[in-house]
Amino acid sequence: MSDANLARALSRRSRMAKLKKRLSEGLFSGYGFLGYLFLYLPIIILVIFSFNDSRSTAQWAGFTTRWYVAMAKDHQIILSLWNSLFVAVVSTVISVIIGTLAALAMERYRFWGKLMMDAVLYLPIIIPDIAMAIMLLIFFDLSGVGFEPWKVHFFGVHLAVPYSVIIGHVAFNISFVAVVVRARLAQMDMVLEEAAQDLYADPWRTFWRVTFPMLLPGIVGGALLAFTLSMDDFVITFFTSGAGFNTLPVRVFSMIKKGVTPKINAVSTLMLLFSLVLVAISLILSRGGSEEGPSTPTL
Amino acid sequence: MKKWLTLLRQRPSLQAWLLLLPSAFWLFVFFIAPLFIVLVYSFLERGTYGGVVWHFTLENYRRVFDPLYFKTFWRSFYIAAVTTFFTLLLGYPLAYYIATRPPKRRGTLVLALMIPFWTNFLVRTYAWLTLLRTHTGLINVTLMSLGWIHKPLPLFGNDTAIVIGLVYGWLPDMILPIYATLERLDRSLLEAAMDLYASGPNVFRRVIWPLSLPGVVAGSMLVFIPSLGAFVTPAILGGGKALMIGNIISNQFLAAHDWPFGSALSFVMMAVMLIATLIYFRATSGEERRQL
Amino acid sequence: MSEAYAVELERVVKKFGEVVAVNGISLGVRDGEFFSLLGPSGCGKTTTLRLIAGFEMPTSGSVRIYGEEQGYLPPYQRPVNTVFQNYALFPHMTVAQNVAFGLEMKKVPKEEIKRRVAEALELVRLTGKENRRPKQLSGGQKQRVALARALVNRPKVLLLDEPLGALDLKLRKAMQSELKALQERVGITFIYVTHDQEEALVMSDRIAVMNEGNVLQVGTPEEIYEQPQNRFVADFIGKTNFIPGKVVMLSGEAADVRLEDGTVVAAARPEALGVSAGEQVVLSIRPEKIYIAPHGDKPLVPDADALTHAVGQLQKVFFVGVERRYIVALPDGTEVEVRVQNTDRGARRCRVGDRVSLYWRRAHARLLKE
Hints:
The complex is a heterotrimer. By secondary structure, chain B is mainly alpha-helical. Chain B has helices spanning 2-10, 12-41, 59-64, 67-99, 103-118, 121-132, 138-145, 159-184, 187-195, 200-228, 232-237, 245-254, 259-283, 286-290, and strands at residues 45-46, 52-53.
């Protein structure tokens, strides 16, 4: 009799425990959903109101694409988009080359001054952009380097090269590229390079045939990160650009300062699309590439 | 040429510096040198029409601690701390949630984090501007039209707005390192703890939390430092009233033309961050940092 | 030095900072020989191999390959190839691309590369796997690709760094005989690094036993096993008993040694060993070289009267299938292990606790320094 009672009590207890587990699991999943909702809802609303047929960004008044048309007709915006792309491409190319070389030196050698270089490479990551911005501002002013874009004419192409902005972007991108490439290098087995040397490859060919292909996912990851950071940067560009030179974020900032309109939403949606394309590229590369994709830019 | 190559082969540190030459040049000229110039400027007097007078003074640093500015300094510190606290509070369970999903779901969820992470910070801040604005923001407009409130909530142009913007902006930076440590956690450790009679909360308190601490510390650093130096968020969501140290610094260059004082403010801000970084390096071993 | 060696090391020293990895070793590896470097981990065998390959440069001393001084020559200019411990196959290349790599670097014509790669893959029985990636291969197959990738270049010397270490026991045994057969077929000099003494004994023409950066003995497997020159070699290769004693008589190769309890036994002196009468030494006797019999009985061998004789007490007997192991304590407490084939009837009459007689031949008791 008491045995039966005990058994019943036990089974009750185990049923309770099961229920409790289900409940906590359910609450937890609910929290996960809310967390992602918090991350995505503002962006989704932003996109929705870029199609709002009213100047308001709070009350829905029907669907329109007129803000996109207005954006496309705004020469300032189009120009600043080209400027952004130009600065991003040039600074990415420079910083990927310089940063990869730095990563190779830091990861593959022991040398005098390494600790100091380590600190110098990490500082631009840690230092807030506002501090770096005013540092560069004072430097360009004091040194007489100046801010005015450098006008280039060749083969009928007129190009304004905003060297001060590019210099600043490269200065912070080197460090990020170096971090990502170093992470990849650290995972790589040195013995593969020895194997190549053993098979008659001199250092030059060892690099191009073995080191570089294996390093490529890291380099691509670093390039994507550098490109994104450069496209995203507002503060450093704002302080180092000459009069009248705008990148897209700088343009958007001054538009926001003048007043909120769905046109800004439209531009923001465009920038969002850019980010999505970059995420997609990095995803495709990591799936299609070798066993490991570009490292996530978590620092 | 041949002689050079032999010399190079025998001296690896020469090879290393050859590889470092471009980056070292770039960073020393365009980063370290400017840093020193700012340091020098912070001890100079301001010129009448902007610029500087080459005359040594400690006045700029004294003014940093003047109540007028020190209050902003302290508020920035406070906002950064509150932001860090809330990102941790929201981010830890989310990181734990992701880490406990099946591996395939985990990949999708991490990718879903990357999208806002890669989205332009300015865009994300602007999104909140359209939500929070006092009279024309979506939240207040919706709540008023529903008749739930009759007076707009004070969501904009104050510290609350700045904290919301910063928490939203830096949340992925908190989640990712915590997730990295949790994901690596050996499940058999949890089983061992449960086998040794630890209940759910105790497993968390005694095993999971201590083991995820390196991720928590790293995430807190990644949130605290940029929050302290925030410029865009207060500029947009502070509505020109609620300012942080980053805005005060930029004002010295854009409006007040007091470059020496702006330099001094920057240096004090960087000193605070340096201290925070040193604490971080003390709190975690090199091995733990490399895992992130 | 007069002999033409394939690889010759002369007083080679390699230091890493303060640590001496290789302590002035001199070695000569003969043409066409299967030569093993054997020793515990950290003995300097891998460093020695890397010095020959050119991955490390000697701190002092000279490395010659077929008489040519290698000096500071980088690995890609040396006529040797290496099979690495964990294969070191390039993950971004197929099997065929891996094997072709060295030939491409040497700018061998395309047609010839194709032919030689096919030959090499046939040699290691991997025809048909050309387009696989290393990831898609089993451990044994990776091993054979690594081998083909090295052999295809027809190196003068092949260096192998514990190439079978990552394989499981059964596969390892199979690969041992395969490797040995391969070496005989291609006739290339092999220098083989291993810490597995059985592997070294089975495969090698000659072995160099190393410890703490020194070469302690070089010889054929038989020489190393039967005539160890010092205590480390005797102990590291196979199982042996060490019995302490004092030299009482020396006469050429023969020596008489007084054990602690006063018994005088026969021993053999290695030619190079400089000992004098009265010196404290140890005898090294392999367990299977000792006969055991009930006290006073003689073992059932024709030359029983010529054997030397000691007395002890039987402590334990272990049955291990093919043999029995007897643990006997000598009067001074030294434990001696005796291994007897399961067919020996005489030994079986010994009971635990009995006094027993131990017998051995003079040549089997090796006199060694303390």
